Structures are given as structure tokens and as C-alpha cells.
Amino acid sequence: MKKHWIIAAFLGLALTSCENILDKTDLSAFNEEQVFNDTLLAKGYVDYVYDQNLPTWPTGDFLKCTDEIGGETRFFEGTVQVNTVQDFGIGVNATNNYGKIRSINQFLAKLPTGSLSEDAKKRLMGQVTFFRAFRYWDLVQLYGGVPMVLEPLEGVGEEAKEEAAIPRSSTSESIALIVEDLDYSIASLPGRWSNTNDWGRITSGAAAGFKGRILLHYASPQHNPNDLTERWQAAYDANKKAIELLSANGFKLHSSFSDLWFQEVNNPEAVWVACYNNKVGDQINKNMTWDNGTRPSYLGTGGGSNQPTWEIEQAFPMKNGKNIDEKGSGYDAQLFYKNRDPRFNQTIAFNGATWAINGNANYRLWTYFINNKTVEQKATSTGFYCRKAIDPNLAAGAVANAGTDWIEMRYAEVMLNFAEAACGVNKLDEAYAQLTALRKRAGIEPGADGYYGLNPQMSRAEMFEAILHERQVELAFEGKRFYDLRRWKKFETVLNGKSRNGVTINLKSSAPEDFAAKRDGMNLDSVYKNYMEIVPKKLDTKYLVNWKPEYYFFAIPQQALTNNPRLEQNLGWPSGTFDPLK
């Protein structure tokens, strides 16, 4: 039996648990039979699947394709080409989607032939089918229906044989097969793993939550332009089951919106988590890059990127729950930070904000300019910094090795998914219940009516908008906004023809000469009223946003079409015949 794929799987194995649950060992001496007949080795293969497939902290083009941060991108410039989105995979490569799917299929085909107990097989396969669903959904949400390869093939891409020349399944067929995998995972996995060393493994609730997310996407206008009731009902049923499964196993909202990122094992809000570790002994495990790359460069070793726009600043409601442009909100444009939803101050760092960071609970951040010169060592381009998931207790020298876990799915998202699906089937009371619970945790005032600033008489359409707005605030900078705008086909109305904006805050000449020496002890409201000028600043200076309709389903790369002549291109792209809505 060939064993080269086994060796490749285990070399440099990086485990998903936050503890070292396996010792790294040379497994090149083992063949297939030994791996699938040994619990420890089979589990090691599953850990390899985790390592290859777990999502990471958000980065890249799709993070820029929102109204959360600035940055040039082809998607907003309107210059996306057939070969721009290469996630499809065009060759035999363990790092692309089909390469990862092949390793998954190999495991799913071989494990049933081994001698492990049926219960052990079920739990191992339940984890792996989850990741096959994840990989296929990664493709389907980009392109629509794709070839659904459910068994290991000898080759794909450049080495494809006739057996690999598989046509695209319809989007509906692809979704059905993804859901089938997730249903198996839900039925096979525990609601909570009993061993703390297994923290980070997929649970039945995580699989149910992911199924709910997918079916919500499938019910949204991108895939469901005719607002089919059965799509919303399927999304509602899936998300209701996810809420029930998770709640029964102790998952719930964390008590603190800002601190939820810094609790690892048994974090009640962490439904689906990718574990990262700080230095353990002489070994450096996976380090996350978000903290290092996001905080101001002079407060660590990072680059001060992921800077919030004025648009996301304006999205946060007031502490009374009203939007800033609503009558009775109390919003003051000069004191934009005052009396806001507490999530504002826990997500965005602004000029004059007190930001507990580098172990200094009283640090004051200043981003203003004097005579066109920044008081920072390197100025933020938007006037703001993102402070979400920035560990306040890390010393500057430890930032590069930050080990904060990435929470791909929070219980809060499952609540929002359920709220939206409930709205889809006109159960608005259930949608209200989720939104008010989130706002209560955030610290928004309940108001006399107990609706936490929400309009108590919303229509279905108004409720959809309220939920999307709540998602924008609650899930800001978590990589969800791009897909929300895309699945609701909102790029044209929210961003097209516009520029994203920031601000430049200038210190007026009327400020005292010793302002810099006194500023940390001064009242911030007085500082802004008397000494600060807020000047709008365009971030998109080379073009106005120009998202095009064909971007709702990207093109299959040309090399993939060449490799597999049975593939069809999407409608809206050159020579496209495939309808991703079917």
C-alpha cells in the first residue's frame, strides 16, 4: 500500500487543541492499515484535517471589501477578472480546496475499513465530514454549484484523469450534499467534549450552527431572489435546532462583550474556535497575527492596520439604542463618542479615548494633528484604530506571539442567524427576543418599553434591516460584513458610487501651548468642544466604489476550465452558461 500521503499528512503536524494532546513523532514507518486500526494515529489524522482547514483571523481582500476599513481592492475598483478569485484550485495542491477535500475523502473512505470501535469511528468521521462541508461551502458561496467529489480520486487539476473530469453540480444539489454531511456531524458528535484537552473540537452544536449559517445564506436574496418561503423555513428550522442544541450544552452569551475573546477553554460563547498558542517551553505554536497587525505600531510591533472608517463609527447606535440620525437619539457630531452603545468604545479607539493596553489601564490615545503634522509616530489613515480582540494585558514585546483564539462562530452570531430566519418566516417576536438579548448584554438602556431602542412595531422588511444593522455592530471586524453585503446584494446601495471616509482631527490654534502636557488629565468633552476640529477625509481617492453585479458569483478560473472541459463558466462572465441560481 502507498503511504506517501500518510507521511505528508503528519509531517510538521500542528494540533488544534490548546494543549499538546499528541507528541509529535515520526510516523513515516506506519502504513494505511496501522493508521486506521490505531485510535491515536487516526485521531492524529483528524488533527491534521483541523490544522489544514480551520478558518483563521480575517485578512485580505474580502476584509477590505466592506465599509469597516479602507484599502484599495480590485473588487471595489471594478477590475475583477476571470482569474482573480483562485480559491477553486487549479492543480494538485494540499493547500487548495480540492487538495484538502482529497485528504478528507481519503480518511472517510479508509476509516470504515479499520478495526476501531463504531463509536470511535463515528466521532472521528463526524469531525471530518464537518470540514468537508466547510470546504465545499467555501467554494459554493464564491462560485455557486461546484463538482461534488465525495471519494478520493487519483488526481485533480493538472494531473486530472478522465475520472476527475466531473461537471458542476447545481447549487441546490451542492447545498443538499453539504447539509447531508452536516446532518451526519450533528448526529455523530457530542454536544460538549468532556476532556478539556479536546477544547476546540467540533461539537454537534457547532455543526448545527454552521448548517444554520449556510441555509440562511441560501435563503438570502443572493441565492433566493424570489423570496421562496421554503428556503426561509429551512433556515429557521436549522437555526432553531442550533440554538436548542447549544443552549442545552451550556453555550450562551459571555457576560462581557469585550472580554469574551480572552477566555479559552469553556468559553460559553465560542461555538466554533481555532486555537492559537503562545510560546510553550522551547516550542512556538500557532501565533495569531490580528493583535500584532491591528494595534498602533508604536504600542507593539504591529502595523496599525484594520483601521475603522467613519462609516462603521456612524453605524453604532446610542446608549439609548436609537440610531444616531433618529429623533431623540441625543447624538452630537462634535462629541461623536459620547453616550454611544458601549460596544462602540469596546470596538473602536478614537482620539482621546482611554484604552487599557500594554498593561496600562489609563493609557490615553491621541491621533490629532498640529499644523498638518501628526502627534503620533505614524498616523492612522482614518483617525481611528480597531480595539476589538486586542489583548490589554500583553506587554509590547509579547504582541508578536499573541495566542488569542479565533472564534469563527460566536453564540451571538447563532442568535442573529436565528433572528433573521425567524424574520424570514414572519415570526418577528422571536427576532425581537434575540436582538433585545444582545442589546441587553451590550449595555444599551432598555427604555420604558423594554425594546432597547428598537422600533416595537417593525414590518418584516424593517426587521431585516434592523438585524443587518445589529450584525454590522455586534460582528464588526469579524469577517462577516463582506458576506452579509454580498448575500443581501447590498453593495450597490450601500457603497457604489461613494468613497469610504475617515477623519482628520486638528488641534485648533486656541489650544494652550502646554496642551500635550495636560491633555491626559483634561475632560474630553471640553477638549473636543474647545480645541478639536473634525475634518472629513476621503479614503478612496483613486476611484469611487464600483462593485459589479457579476461579482455575486465569481468566475471559475480559466485554468480550471482548461483542466476540466466539463466545467461551465458562470453566467455574466465570458462564455458563461452555468446558472448559479439553480
From TrEMBL:
InterPro entries found in the cross-reference section: SusD-like_N (IPR033985), SusD_RagB_dom (IPR012944), TPR-like_helical_dom_sf (IPR011990)
Gene3D superfamilies: 1.25.40.390
Location of the RagB/SusD domain: 268-573
Domain SusD-like N-terminal residues, every copy: 95-216
Keyword check for NADP: no
PROSITE patterns on file: PROKAR_LIPOPROTEIN
UniProt-listed SUPFAM superfamilies: TPR-like
Pfam (any one): SusD-like_3
Location(s), subcellular: Cell outer membrane
Keyword tags: Cell outer membrane, Membrane, Signal
Coiled coil region boundaries: none
Family: Belongs to the SusD family.
Protein name: Uncharacterized protein YktA (UPF0223 family)
